[in-house]
Predict the 3D structure of the following.
Amino acid sequence: SRSAPSYPDYLSIVISATSGVIGTTLLLRRINSLNLSLQEKIHFLEKSKEELALYRNNLEKEVAVRTKELARTNEDLLREIVERKRMEAEIRYHAWHDALTGLANRELFHSRLLAAIASNENVAVFFMDLDGFKNINDTLGHDSGDLLLQETARRIAGEMGEKDTVARMGGDEFTVVITSPSSKEDVAACAERLLRNVSGPVSLGDACVSITASIGISCYPQDGKNVQELMKCADMAMYKAKERGRNRFCFWSETREKGS
């Protein structure tokens, strides 16, 4: 028969069993610890995910707000640019145009005439003065005089082409630059139309008046090589037209040919 285990054998069995229990317990503790750590990490990750989602939502809202603010700023900037351009254009317009009639002023007239001369093509210059304007202005008043000047300016501008320049030099003096006229006859025909239209009746409130004009004409390059010479010749030709009875035009070249 088999002999009973010795004491050392029992001790080995007990130690072995105890070690197994202890190892299992330690393993369970380790597993529980790992589970707790894992749960903490999962909770942390979930919390971080929620915070990240909240941050993303806040960021999207902030981006949307900033985008709207940027759009409004761009709109304001565009409006400011448009307004500034409008104001600059208005300033340029007033710098180059007569306030009463809207025609070109003296500075723009000189600039246009200088450019026409520089093109080295034929140019005709009209210098027009209204006959008896001072008497109408003194009799009916300055307001009526201004209305008469405005209507006269409208009639002169209506007869001229887009390439021509009509200007008010001041008072009742007007000038015209005709670029590349086809012939002297065409220039004379234009002057006749201006005289005819200007002399038509004008209603000034309760009064109806008629006024005539005298026109002096100089031509480039025959009568002058620069702005000053052409203006001087046209001005003197205008006074010759007044001397000859008013309501007429006179070429500077004709006054020289006739010696008068």
Q: What stands out?
A: The mean pLDDT is 88. DSSP finds seven helices and seven strands in the chain. Helices lie at 7-96, 106-118, 133-140, 142-159, 184-198, 227-243, 252-257.
